[in-house]
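hey all, quick one before standup. I had two proteins in the batch that finished overnight and I want to keep them in one place so we stop losing track of which output belongs to which input. First protein below, input sequence then C-alpha cells straight from the run.
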Amino acid sequence: MAVLNKIRQRSLVLILVIAMALFAFVIGDVFKNSDSFGTSQDIIATINGEDIKREPFMFAVQNRQQRSGPNATETQIKNQVYNEELRRIVMSSEFEKLGLSVEKDKMRELLETSFGAYPEFQNQDSIFDVNKLNAFIANLKDIQPQGAPLSTFTINYAQWTNNEQSLANGALTQQYYNLVKAGVNATVAEAEDEYLADAKTVDVRYVQVPYTSIADSLVEVSKSEIKAYMEKNRDLYEVDETREILFVEFREDASKEDEDALKAELLGLKADKFEFNSATKATDTVLGFDNTNNIEAFVNSNSDIKFSDEYLRPSQLGVAKDSLANTEIGGYYGPYKDGTFYKYSKVLDRASKADSVKVRHILIPYAGANRVAPDVTRTPEEAKATADSIFNVLKGNRSKFKDLLELSSDKVSNEKEGVIEFTYNQGFAPEFKAFSFDKKKGDMDVVETSFGYHIIEVLDQSGFSNTIKLATVAREIEASEKTIDDVFNGKQKFEIAAESGDFRELAEERGLTAKPVTFKELDENIPGLGSQRQIVRWAYNQDTKVGDYKSFTVSGVGYVVAQLVDVNEEGLMSVENATTPVLAAVRKEKKAEMIRNKISATTLADIANNQGQTVKTATGLTMKNTTLSGAGVEPKVIGTAFGLQQGVVSKPVDGEKGVYVVEVTKITEATKLDNYAAILARLSNARKNTVQTQVYSALEKAADVEDNRAKTVY
C-alpha cells in the first residue's frame, strides 16, 4: 500500500514527464522535417521572391495530363508546367522593372486577333463586334463557376481570364524581345573584321614537334597537379549534384522450357481431341485445326491475336515470309517465333491482289461516328437506310454518282468527284481497304466503317502482287509461374549475398551485368528501364548511404536490385572522377613545357634538324579557317601567324597536337571595300536571331531560384 500511495503522489509528475517526452519527440520530428510547420511542403519553388504553390501547380499538372493523354509521363508534365511558371515569373520580373504592361485597347486587339473569326463575336455582316465580346465575358462572370459554349467547346470565367493573361504575357514577351533586339547591332569595325577574316591571307612555313614524340610514361602527373588544373579551368569541371548506382536486372523472361511447352501446345491444336464430358458422361470430340468447320471461331478461341480475313502481301508476313510462300494451300508452317509471339499458321488461300486502287465513294455519317460534324444527328439505322437508298439509285444508273455527292460528308474527296487513289500500305479504315482491294474492278456496295456508311465503287486496280490468306494461332511468349518463382528466388539470394559480398563480383558470378548509371535529383529515366522515379528518390533519400542496396519491381523487366555507389556533390568534380579526362590535358601541358625547353635554335631549319622534324608549308590561311595544312585544326597557331610580320619567326606555340614554331613567308592584304553595309546587316540579323534564346538563358541563370520539386511533388 505504501508503494501505491507513493505512485499516486507522484502521478502528476509522471504525467508531466511523459507529456514532455512526447512533446520532445514531436518537436524533434518537426525540426527534422522542417516542412511540418509551414510552408515548404506547400511551396514547389520560390523564384525571384514569388512562390509556386502546390495546389495550383498540381491542378495545372492534372489539366495538362488530361490534354496530353498517355503521350507524356507525369514527371514530364510536371517539368513542362514548372518551366512555364519559371519563364512566366522570370519574364514578369523584367516587365515590372521596365514598366511594360498591356492596356485595355491592346488587350481588345489581342482578343480580336484570337477570337475575331468566332461567329459568337460577329455581327450579321460577319464582322467582329466588341459589344458581343464584352457581353459574353460579362455573362461568364455572372454564371461562374459554370461555363458557356463557345464554338465546339465550353469555357468558364476562370479559363477565360487565364487565357487573357496568357495573351497578355505573350504580347509583353514579344514587346520585351523587340526592345532587346533594337539594341543589338554590329558595328562597322566588326563588319570590316568579318570581311578581313575571309579576305586577308598568309602563307607560312612551320615546324611541328608533336606531343607524341615524348612517351606518356616519361611524364608523371600528381593528384595535386590535376586539382590545380581543374581549379584553373573551373568552368570545364563544375558539376551538378548527382548519384551513381549499379543495378542488376532479374528479368521475368520465358525460359527455354517455357518456349518448348508453348510450341507443344500449338502443335497439339492440329488434331482433334477427345474429352470426357462429366455432365453427359460421354466422350466429346473437340475439333482441331485440321477439321474445324469455323476457322475464325477456332483461331479467336485459341489465339492471342484475332483472326484476320485479309490477303497478306509478302511484306506483311514477317520473319516467315519465305517459308509461308512455299507452303501449299491447306498446309501448316510453324510453330515459329515472330517478335514476342509463337505462331502456328495454316495457309487458307492464295490470290493475286492489287497494290494500288482507285475508288470513289459517298459517305453517310451518323451521330457518334469518327470525325463527325456536331450537327449530324441521324442514327446508325437512319444512315444505313440513306446509304442503301443511294446505292439502289446508283445500281440503276452510275452516271448519277456526281449528282449524289452533295449528300456525302467527305468534303475532301468531294472536290475530286468522290475519287480516292491509295496504296495498300496507306492507312485507311480496315473495312474500306478490304473492299477496295479484295473486290474486283467495277464492284460497288455499301460498307460500314467507324466513319459511317460508304457507298464504294472500285474504279481501277493496279500493281498486282501474290498474296496469301492465313489462319494463324498466336500465343504470347510468357514466363511460367515456375520461371517467375525462380527469378524471385534468384533475386532474394542475390540480396542476401550482397549483405557481405561485392556487388559487382556477385553479379559476374551469376552471369548478370552490373550496369552503372548516374543521374540528377529531378531525373526520371534510367537507360534500359525507362521512367523509374522510385529508384531516383531512393538514391537521394537522406537515409540512403553509399553501399546501401534495394530491390525494386520494374514493369516489363521483373526486378532490379540497385546499389548506391557514389554521391557527387555540386561544385568542382572530385579528383578521382576527373583523373581520366584531366590527365591527358595536364600531361599535354607538361609535354609542351618539355618541348619548349628543348628548342634553342632560332631558324626553322635548325629547329627541325635538332628535333628530328621537317619544315612544312601552308598557303592561303585565313582567320576564319582554323585548319593548318599538314597538321589539323590549330586555331592558336593560325592566330599567331596573323600576328606576325612577314619574315618573322614566332616563339614556340602550344597547339592542339604539338608545339609549333611559325614563320610568315607572305601576307596578302585584302582590298578594302567602299561599303560594308551588306556584311553589317548580315551580322546584325544573325545576332538578332539568336538573342532571344540567349537573353532568356541569361535571365534564368541570374534568377534567384529555390527549387523544392524533388521534396514536394517528385
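OK second protein, same deal, sequence then C-alpha cells:
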Amino acid sequence: MSTEATNPGAHSRRRGLPRIDLRRLGRAALLGPTGRDRLPDAIGHVAEAHRAHHPDADLAILHKAYVLAETSHRGQFRKSGEPYITHPLAVTLILAELGAETTTLTASLLHDTVEDTEVTLDQVRSEFDAEVCYLVDGVTKLEKVDYGAAAEPETFRKMLVATGNDVRVMSIKLADRLHNMRTLGVMRPEKQARIAKVTRDVLIPLAERLGVQALKTELEDLVFAILHPEEYERTRALIADNATACDSLAAIAEDFRAVLKDADIAAEVLIRPRHFVSVHRARLKRGELRGTDFGRLLVLVGEDADCYGVLGELHTCFTPVISEFKDFIAAPKFNLYQSLHTAVAGPDGAVAEVLIRTHQMHKVAEAGVIALGNPYVPVEGAEPVDGERADPTRPGWLSRLLQWQQATPDPDTFWTSLRADLAQDREITVFRADGRALGLPAGASCVDAAYAQYGEEAHSCIGARVNGRLATLSTVLSDGDTVHILLAQDAASGPSPDWLDHARTPAARIAIASWLQAHPEGATAPDAAPRRPAPVAAERPAAVNAVVDLPDATVRMAGCCTPVPPDAVVGFAVRGGAVTVHREECPAVARMKSLDRAPIPVSWGDAAECRVTLIAESFGRPRLLADLTEAIATEGAAIVSATVEPPSEQRVRHTYTLQLPDAAGLPALMRAMRDVPGVYDVTRTQHPTATG
C-alpha cells in the first residue's frame, strides 16, 4: 500500500490549518536521535504536547507509567518491526495533542500492559490508583481462548459498559484504533478489510457521537483508502490536480478579514481544507467541483456574541445562501458540537462555506469529550440529578445502549444491534407528558418512545398523543415533539408483531421480539378491535322539553348537535311547520344565518329527561364495547342506538344515542365513559346536517 493510502490525510498539512495536527507521528519523532534499542527521550514528545494544554501538569506520573510500559514491553515488536513501545507512545501522543488530562495519558501508556505483558491490574492499581486501573481494564481485550468468536463483540460490550462510567475509556480506544489504522499496511489485505469494516461500523460512529472530529475524519480517510481503493485514488488525483484550488478561498478570506477589521471584530479567518471523504461526498453531491469546494473558511472569535456579529457582517457585505444557514450554537448537536454554518457567494458566483465559532467551541469540536478532561469529577456542593451523575456530554444514546445490551446475552444479536444503533447518526429530543426529556435517534416512532419511557411496561401501550393530538404508534417523531404514551390497564395485553416494523431503537425491537417469542399464541394483541356490531335498539319516545314561541309547532332536537339542558339553544323553522333546535355553537346555526333564515327563540321547559348523541373515540382492544356499555348503564342512561365504525389504524369510533333520566347527569356520564381504558375522548355530536 502506498504512503498516501496509509496516511491519506497528508494533503491537509497545508498552510494555516487551525485543526489539531495528528499526523506528526513517525518513527523519528518517537525514537528521537537514539537507536531502536533504547527510547530515553521518547516520552519528551508526549510531555511537550501535554504541557501545551496543561502547563501545570505533573509529569512525574507520566514518566513512571512510561518506565513501566517500556520495561514490560521490552523485547516485543510490532509486525512492522518497530519496538512495541512505539504503539502506546503514539496513542498517548495523539491524546496529548488533543488536550487529554494526565490520568488519561497515564492509562494510555499502560493500555496494553495487562493484555500483552506480565503486568496485572492489581499492580497497576497499587503503583498508580483505582482510576488509572479502571481505564486500563476498560480497554483490555477479552481472551479469544475464553470467548472464541465472541471475543470481539464481548470486548466491545465490556468497553461500552466501562465507557458508561467513564467516557475516557472510549477516548483511549479511539486513539488506539487510529494508530493501528495508520500502520495497517503491514497486515494481510483480508485482515485490513475486516478491521476497516469494524472501524467504519463501530469506531467511527462512536467518535462522531463523542464529538472527536479530529479522530473521526482521519479514521474515515483511512477506511476509505482500504475499502474503496479505486474511489480513493480518484479522489487523491482530484485533490492533487487542484493543489491551488484553495487560492480562491484565500481571496475570499482576505475580504472577510477586511470586513471584520472594519467592523472592529477581533477574528481569525482560516482556510480549512476538506479531507478525502469530504471531497468524495462533495463530488457525488455536486458533480464537477469548483475551487471553493475543496475547503471551508473557518472564523474563530473570542465570545459567543461575536459569532453572531460575524454572521451579521458577512451576510450584510456578501450574498448569503440562506438555505445553508444552520445555528448549532443556540441548538448544539447531541455530541456537544457548536458552530454557526453559513455560505456566501463570491464576486464570480463561487459559493464558499463558512464555519463561525469561538476558540473554545473549536477545541471541543475537534477533541469532543477528550477536551473536557474527566466529566465525572464531582463538583463540591452540587447535587446529583435523579440519583445519577450529571454528564456534560449528554450521551442519551449511551444510556439507551447500556440498557438494551443487558437484554441481549447473545453476542451475535448484540453485535448486529450495536451496528444498527450506531448507524443512526442523528438524535432528537422529545418531551414526555410530565415535561421530562427523552433522547431518541432520528426516525424514532411512538413505539420507541413508549419503550424508552416505560421499558417492558410498554407492552400494554395502546396509543399515543403527539403534541396533544391522537397519533398512531407508527408516527415518526420530530425534534421537540411532546409525546403522551397511553397504556392499557389490562395486564394481559401485549405488543403486535406490526410494532417491529415501526421500532427503530434496539431496546424496543429486543423487548418486542422477546415478548412475541414468549407468547407465540399472540395472547391479546392490543391492536385488535371489535367488529361493527348490529345497532343496539332500545327505542322509546324521546321527551322534548324545549319550548318555542310558535303556536302548535312541532319541536325536535337536531341530530347534528343533540342539545340538552342547560345548553344555549336556538331554533329554525323547517318544512311541515316544525322547529329544529340547535346548540348555538353548532355549525348548522352559522350556515342557516348565512341563508338569512330567521332564528326562533327557544327555552327549556321543566322536564328533566333528555336524549343525546355521544361519540366515543378509542383504541381497539378486547371487551371495549362491553366495558363502555356497562359504564353507560351504571350512570342510568338507556341506549337508544349504537354503532361502531370499522377500526382504522387501531382507532375505533363509537356513536351512541342515549336517553338520560336527567340532563344534569350528562357530565358525569361523559366522565365515566372517558375513564374506560382505551377511550381517549368522548364528545357530543356536532356536525352539519341537512336542515329544512
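Flagging for whoever picks this up: Residues 570 and 602 are 5 Å apart (CA to CA). Confidence is low (pLDDT under 50) at residues 1-40, 378-394, 523-543, 688-692.
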